[in-house]
Amino acid sequence: MAVLRKLARPLLAVPFVTGGLRTLHRPETVAEGARPVIQEVGKRIPALAGDPLQLVRVAGTIQAAAGLMFATGRAPRLSALTLAATLVPTSLTTHAFWTVEDPQERARQRAHFLTDLSTLGALLIAAVDTHGKPSLVFRSRHAFDHRHPVAAVRRPVEAAAARTVHRAKGVADSLTDSLTDSLTGSR
């Protein structure tokens, strides 16, 4: 699986890196298409009602950076989740097939939208991929035996107590021997 991950990540990241860099190179073309969606979203979420050109540059930077991180295996789960989060608004603005009148163009935009949808699914799978290792949630849930939590704690405590008793007996025997030697030697 490790070889497959090393091959699949760059393949999945390439469209984001190239798209992000293209957006940074020519943000005006993307900003024009994104303007209606940004205005509509801005009505509901005022924090996103900014300058379309600036928002498109930010999105392009995030996609290029997260794509490079994902392709190289740096924070792959976080970068996959970041790419998934940027894919949704990007896809809604660039492939809004439901707004297109021409049947051929509508079919083309629908195909692109469905491709983005499948890419979103792949990114979500990558975001939860733990490389075959137990996740933090799994490890925290199974730190103790859930069926018998008292038994899970009692065993190590009993073992430590047995070691302590054994050491205490050794110290007591040593003291007894020392006392016996000193008493018998003084007579």
Strand-residue proportion: under 5%
- What is the H/E order? HHHHHHH
Q: Measure the end-to-end span.
A: 79 Å
Share of helix among residues?
over 70%
Mean pLDDT, nearest integer? 85
Structural class: mainly alpha
- Kindly provide the radius of gyration, computed on alpha-carbon positions and rounded to a whole number of angstroms: 31 Å
Q: If helices are DSSP runs of H or I spanning 4 or more residues, what is the number of helices?
A: 7
Describe the model:
Helix 1 crosses helix 2 (27-44), helix 3 (52-72) packs antiparallel against helix 4 and helix 4 (76-94) runs antiparallel to helix 5 (103-127). It is built from 7 helices and no strands. The chain is 81% helix and 0% strand. The protein is mostly helical and 187 residues long.
Search tags:
0% strand; mainly alpha; 187 residues; single chain; 7 helices; 81% helix
